[in-house]
UniProtKB/TrEMBL annotation:
Protein name: Uncharacterized protein
Superkingdom: Bacteria
Gene3D superfamilies: Galactose-binding domain-like
Species whose genome carries this gene: Anaerocolumna cellulosilytica
InterPro entries: Galactose-bd-like_sf
Length: 263
């Protein structure tokens, strides 16, 4: 059994609420969050699959956890603009942690999805990073590309958050899984706020196994699908992003999905 815990700490590190359990724990927090508050999940074992919920309005995240403590910084101010307005608000919050069942782990699914991804080396996977995020704004952060929201007809605040490249020619985004997985399909939703947006006509996908794929794209608001020969990888990267011959300088990525199974 796993010993699991949930704590809410204030900016000074003092415990505001906590709950513990074996293989499953729930915490109902009946106060409004204050700036500087953070949520801490604890586990008695590392390298485990956990279903984690930092907020009932955000939903459950299926994660692979490599640390015995996961610290989640509750967003405030401009950092909250990439989340639905109801997330982390009010005075009724349900948080939970649960050991993933064998059947859940074995499912064929989108292995990139993580609604609770955030900046930093969190030990919670999947995790997206990039060498540029437009003006450092939350609505253009790498994490937006794996939050499960495909709406791509505008840009800016939720639900139109995206990964923005700030016109940088060598922009790259990396997706780490934290362990080996087996993937056979990639899906991209590029941002389609035309005529504000440009789009990529070609991207290069590099995999941890040393292989790469050149992926040709078109102007579209629909899913771009790349079928792969099934491969075992621990990360992938999108780079060499070639934009279309269009007056707009603003291509962006709304969502990256990676389909497959655990190894």
């Amino acid at each position: 059994m796993l010993e699991l815990g949930i704590k809410i700490l204030n900016a000074q590190g003092q415990v505001k609420a906590e709950q513990y359990g074996q293989d499953e724990v729930n915490l109902f927090y009946k106060e409004e969050y204050q700036e500087g508050d953070q949520i801490v999940f604890t586990t008695s074992k590392k390298d485990v699959y956990l279903n984690l919920q930092v907020d009932d309005a955000l939903g459950m995240a299926f994660t692979y956890v490599t640390n015995d403590e996961i610290i989640y910084q509750i967003p405030f101010g401009v950092k909250r603009l990439s989340y639905a307005p109801k997330v982390f608000t009010g005075n009724r919050h349900l948080l939970s942690a649960r050991t993933a069942m064998k059947e859940e782990i074995g499912n064929y699914r989108n292995l990139a999805l993580n609604v609770m991804d955030q900046h930093g080396d969190t030990g919670c996977y999947p995790h997206a990073t990039a060498n540029v995020e437009t003006r450092g704004e939350s609505v253009f952060a790498a994490r937006n590309a794996i939050d499960g929201i495909r709406e791509n007809h505008s840009h800016g605040e939720w639900p139109y958050q995206s990964w923005g490249i700030n016109r940088q020619e060598d922009a790259e985004i990396k997706l780490d899984f934290g362990r080996m997985i087996q993937a056979d399909k990639l899906v991209l939703y590029t941002r389609a706020d035309f005529p504000h947006d440009n789009w990529w006509v070609k991207v290069t996908v590099t995999f941890s196994d040393g292989t790469s794929e050149i992926w040709k794209l078109e102007k579209s608001d629909r899913a771009h699908v790349l079928l792969l020969e099934s491969k075992k990888i621990s990360w992938l990267m999108l780079g060499e992003l070639v934009k279309a011959d269009d007056p707009s300088p603003f291509p962006a990525l709304t969502q990256l999905e990676v389909y497959g199974r655990e190894v």
